[in-house]
Amino acid sequence: MSRSRDRYVPLLLVLLASAMRLALAFRVRVPSSDGAIYLWACEAIADGRFADGWSTVFHPGTAMLVAPLVGFGVSSDVAFALVATIAAGFVVIGIDRICRSFECDATARTVAMMLFVVGFHFVRLPADVYSEAFALPFVTWAIVMALRERWSMSAALAGCGFFVRPEAILVAVVPWMLSLARDSGRRTEHAKAGGEGRGTSTRRRNPARAIVGICVVCALSFGLLRGWLTGGHALTPKLDFMLPLGPLGPLFEGHFAEAASRLGSNVFRLVPSIASGLDYGSGFLGLIGLVLLAKSTRARAVVARAMTTFALLHVITLLAFETKPRFFLMLAPILLPCVGVLWMRLRGFMRQIVRVAILTTLVVAVVRDVKDQIDPPRSEKRVELELGRQLAARGSTLGNMVSALPRVAWAAGQRPLPPWPWTATELLQRVIEPHHRILVMLATDDNLRAMIADPRGFRRVDTPGHATERGARIAVYER
User: Fold this and answer.
1) Which residues 6+ apart lie within 8 Å of 433 measured at CB?
2) How many CA atoms, within 13 angstroms, populate the side-chain half-sphere of residue 366?
3) pLDDT bucket at 470, cuts 50 / 70 / 90
4) Edge-to-edge order in the sheet of strand 474-478
5) Residue 4 has pLDDT above 70, yes or no
6) What are the angstrom distances between the C-alpha of 360 and each of 21, 78, 115, 280?
7) Helix (H) or strand (E) holding 403
8) Residue 350 CA from chain centroid, whole number
9) Percent of the chain at pLDDT above 70?
């Protein structure tokens, strides 16, 4: 019976995860601002406009994975939801494999998988259209392959993850550290057996070098491809976009007080962001489980150190730019299996307290999921999609509209601008050609004053969406 359970429980949880994600995605049907840009890139690549698809501020791996389905005529939002749901199934199975390598029993493995299956932000990923949905499988299976000592495969998965999200490549530190530890142990055993340690030869040092080499090749390949397609030279296009948002931007400009203030703000938000991103408990419980893992055996201590190093590198990277709850989802392949370790290893009274805390985390996540089904997120922003479709119907053509609202631009078939709080002054600086005929922005007082004072011949036009509160906050200008 236990063998049957081991075989079918992960598959049943994959089905449950798929059902929850698809149900929410089809209930919402309004992407996030970032998501509108991903969907536009999917459509561009599916249409053969690879340079356009690779030229956004986001890495194109997400669009490349979804574009084939869009090419078969599936709408981009539906295609994203379907492919992201399949990706979630790989994460569920991967968490099960990681838990098995930690020798978790069937119940502990089920708990760890359930934390991902019902996790609030995890369930939202397909509906929000965020790239974490596709970065997570690469990170998860890079860890799985590292624990199986398949170093090259682990490094290749980390390198492929770089095409989806740049920070995914940091997981390569796990196979790198584990391969170094294995070779060091073998050299020690060889020396104790009477050898001089040279019998291990160059071959045993190769895994660590190969891991670095594979990751470098993947990153350089990305940079070369992007440079060839778009003419861009940055290794990651997100760097220029994210740099002004964190402490590094003002630091490089010599504004040390501003840099210190932003760093302090990021540090201050670190704990609540981890808490919110990983369902108000599973992240911190996973950290306790990571400590228990390190104290179990010498081999497990090496694994725990490697995973801790990846977690620290990831957190340091976020502190240098931005700390948002969903950015910490990439730590799930480490922390959620460690919750399974915690479930299994504790004894006595503490065991009962921790299990109640874990079950409470699951209940809270389910409640939030149900709330999303009842009251879908971003429903008030459907007016942006309606406005975009109206503008498309009025004859807006590719390239003649400049919009500060990515959802409006995507729905109108236009290229969305990067997700930035654009002002009217900044938008007007982009209107340099006669074919730029339509401007869409938030109707703030500053924006309205800037448009009244500008002599370029724009006049505000009314749209049916202005009847709603959200529509009244959007200003459309035409010339």
Assistant:
1) none
2) 8
3) low
4) 401-403, 438-442, 474-478, 459-461
5) no
6) 21, 33, 11, 10
7) strand 401-403
8) 34
9) 90
Q: What is the pLDDT of residue 1?
A: 44
Q: How far is CA 10 from the centre of its chain?
A: 23
CA–CA gap between residue 195 and residue 193 (Å, rounded): 6
pLDDT of residue 462: 77
The Cα–Cα gap between 255 and 247 comes to: 9
CA distances from 55 to 87, 227, 239, 398 (A): 24, 10, 13, 16
Per-residue pLDDT reduced to its tens digit, 88-134: 999 999 999 999 999 999 999 999 999 999 999 999 999 999 999 99
Contact 126, 77 (CB under 8 A): no
- Rounded-to-integer distance, Cα 78 and Cα 180, Å: 44
- Confidence band for 144, pLDDT divided at 50, 70 and 90: very high
- pLDDT tens track for 401-439: 888 899 999 999 889 988 888 888 888 887 776 677 888
User: E strands, 151-307, where?
Assistant: none
Residue type, 112: A
Per this entry, what is the length of the chain?
Answer: 479
Query: Considering the entire predicted model, what is its pTM?
Result: 0.91
Q: For residue 187, give the nearest of 204, 206, 211, 212 by alpha carbon.
A: 204
Q: How far apart are CA 213 and CA 147, in angstroms?
A: 20
Structure tokens that stand for 461 in this block: 């036009």
Beta bridge partners of 403: 440
DSSP 247-259: THHHHHTT-HHHH
Q: Give a three-class secondary structure readout of 418-478.
A: CCCCCCHHHHHHHCCCCCCCEEEEECCHHHHHHHHHCCCCCEEECCHHHHCHHHHCEEEEE
The amino acid present at 243, given as its one-letter code, is: L
Separation of alpha carbons 479 and 466, rounded Å:
19
Angle between helix 332-345 and helix 348-374 axes, rounded to 10 deg: 140
Is the Cα dihedral 444, 449, 450, 455 positive or negative? positive
Q: Are 387 and 440 in contact (CB under 8 A)?
A: yes
Q: What's the token pair of residue 164?
A: 């989806």
The more confident residue out of 3 and 417 is: 417
Give the CA distances from residue 417 to residues 48, 235, 371, in Å, rounded to whole numbers and listed in that order.
20, 20, 31
* Alpha carbon distance 50, 45 (integer Å): 5
Distance CA 407, CA 111 (A): 37
Count the neighbouring beta carbons within 10 Å of the beta carbon of residue 163: 24
- The Cα 427–Cα 417 span in angstroms is 10
Closest CA to 372 of 38, 39, 127, 136: 127
- Three-class SS state of 163: helix
Question: Is pLDDT above 90 for 230?
Answer: no
